[in-house]
Design brief:
The protein is built from 2 helices and 21 strands. The chain is globular and about 60 Å long.
C-alpha cells in the first residue's frame, strides 16, 4: 500500500449484502427495527451476527492491501479460522471478561489485489477454555482512491436523479428519513434494472435489507455479474420485517479513467422479492492510478489477531473524503437516534 496516496478505510457492517453467510439460519441477530432513540448498544449500527454452531461461516471478497475484523471476545467464545486466498490460520476469541468492539483479526501487508476472505467458527478446541460462540460485528478494508497529490470529488446520485436509468416497474417510496435522501425506489419485478454511467475510481450502491427482499445481481462494465442476497438477518417468514436501511449493497474500486456503467438487476423469483434503491455514490479523482495485481503469488502476507490503531493503516487518508463518507453513512446509524 502506498501510504502517501489518498487511501480510505471502507466499513462493512454485518448486515451488508457484500458479506455472504453460507447458512443464514446458523446465525442469530437483533432486529434493527426494535432499536430506538433510547437504545444503548456497543455494536455498530446496533447489529451483529452471533452463532454457537461450529463450521458456521461467512465470506467476503475485496480488493485492497488490508482488512480488519471486529466482534466480541469473552468466556463463552472459542476459536475461529481465517482463510485468505487458500492460506488459513486459527485464532481465539476467548477472554476472561466480555469485550465488545474487539479486533478479532487483521492483516495489513497484503498485495494490492483481489482477495477472498472466509471466517469459520471452530468453537472450543483442545486446550481452549472457551465455548462455541462467535460474534461478528463489522469489518474494514483499505482502498486507494487516488495517487499522492491528487484530489477527489464525491457525487451522490439519489434515487430520483435523472442520471439513473430504470427499466421495469419501480415505485417511489414515501418519505422515510432513514434513507440518505429521505426516500427510495423499490421494485418486486423480476428482471427490473437500474443503471448508472459515471467517471470514477470507486462506486457504492446503498439499499436496505428486509425479510421480503431476495437475490439481486450487479454487473460493472463487461465484468461477470455478481449475485448478492438482500434478505435480512433475522430469519422467519417472507414479510416486511427486520428492516435495516442504508446498507451497502455493492462496492467496487480501483477503476480506470474510462466511462463505467453499473447495472443492478432484481432477481425476484417466485416470491416476487423486493429491492430498494437508496442511492449510488462514486468518487472521481483529479488523477487516476490503477493498482495492478502482482504478476506472481507472494502469499497472503503477515496477519495478527491484534493490531495497532486503524489510523496507521491509512496515513494518507483524505480528511475531506472521510468527512463526506461519514455524512453519507450517518443514516446507517440513524435507527439508533431517530
Amino acid at each position: 500500500m502506498d501510504p502517501n496516496a489518498v487511501n480510505q478505510n471502507i466499513t462493512v457492517d454485518d448486515f451488508d449484502s457484500v458479506v455472504t453467510y453460507a447458512d443464514q439460519g446458523q446465525w442469530s441477530t437483533p432486529n434493527p427495527q426494535l432499536l430506538s432513540n433510547d437504545s444503548v448498544t456497543p455494536w455498530k449500527d446496533g447489529t451483529y451476527h452471533l452463532t454457537n454452531i461450529t463450521n458456521a461461516s461467512f465470506t467476503f471478497d475485496f480488493e485492497g492491501p488490508t482488512f480488519f475484523i471486529y466482534g466480541a471476545a469473552g468466556p463463552a467464545y472459542g476459536s475461529f479460522e481465517i482463510s485468505l486466498d487458500g492460506s488459513s490460520s486459527v485464532s481465539t476469541a476467548h477472554a476472561s471478561q466480555n469485550v465488545s468492539g474487539h479486533l478479532l483479526f487483521s492483516n495489513t501487508t497484503l498485495e494490492y489485489a483481489n482477495h477472498t476472505l472466509k471466517m469459520t467458527n471452530l468453537g472450543a478446541q483442545n486446550g481452549d477454555d472457551g465455548g462455541n460462540q462467535f460474534l461478528f460485528d463489522y469489518l474494514q478494508f483499505t482502498v486507494q482512491l487516488a495517487p499522492e497529490g491528487a484530489s477527489v470529488k464525491n457525487t451522490t446520485v439519489q434515487e430520483t436523479d435523472s442520471a439513473l436509468t430504470f427499466n421495469g416497474n419501480w415505485t417511489t417510496n414515501v418519505f422515510n428519513p432513514l434513507f440518505s435522501g429521505g426516500g427510495s425506489k423499490y421494485t418486486n419485478a423480476d428482471g427490473a434494472t437500474v443503471s448508472l454511467s459515471f467517471y470514477g475510481s470507486t462506486i457504492y450502491i446503498f439499499g436496505d435489507k428486509v425479510d421480503d427482499h431476495g437475490l439481486f445481481s450487479v454487473t460493472l462494465d463487461n465484468r461477470t455479474a455478481q449475485q448478492f442476497d438482500g434478505v435480512s438477518g433475522c430469519g422467519g417468514a417472507f414479510r416486511k420485517y427486520c428492516e435495516k436501511d442504508n446498507t451497502l449493497a455493492y462496492f467496487a474500486s480501483n477503476l480506470d479513467s474510462s466511462l463505467h456503467t453499473v447495472t443492478l438487476q432484481n432477481n425476484a423469483g417466485v416470491n416476487h422479492s423486493f429491492f430498494d434503491l437508496d442511492a449510488m455514490v462514486y468518487t472521481t479523482p483529479s488523477e487516476y492510478a490503477v493498482r495492478q495485481p502482482p504478476t506472481s503469488s507472494s502469499g497472503s502476507g503477515s496477519s495478527s489477531s491484534a493490531s495497532s490503531s486503524l489510523s496507521s493503516a491509512v496515513p494518507g487518508m483524505n480528511l475531506l473524503l472521510l468527512l463526506f463518507l461519514n455524512a453519507v453513512w450517518l443514516g446507517r446509524s440513524c435507527r439508533r437516534w431517530l
